[in-house]
Amino acid sequence: MTRVLRPGGQLVIATWCQRDDREKPFDPSEQRMLNFLYSEWTHPFFISIHSYAELMRQTGRLTAIATADWTPQTIASWLHSIWVGVFNPWPVFSRPRLWWKTFRDGLTLVRMHKSFASKLMEYGMMTGTKE
Hints:
Strand content: 15-25%
Largest sheet: 3 strands, antiparallel
Number of helices: 6
Helix content: 40-55%
Oligomer: single chain
Shape: globular
Number of strands: 3
Distance between the termini: 13 Å
Strand order of the largest sheet: 1-3-2
């Protein structure tokens, strides 16, 4: 991404991140939860906010690298997404084959919420300016 960024341009990344596991490795239940999230929504592996910052530093092209955990600002959106479907069920009722997928998505949204609430997951915000 830094290759196409103009000098002085700012790179901003907002993404789901896993907890930094260098000091406290994931226990078996946390690893099962991550594996569920990877397989249910076909995600690439998550990395930590710290790992994103390291990758940004390693480019050698970014300065003023800053990171933040925006989980408190975003955690309510997971359960809100479920309620949006409850209050507007027409897409599911109009296409009955979606019932199973909708149920699984709802379950995954709840598990994602739990992962953020337990601090297994974090919502990472990372920025850097190209030299």
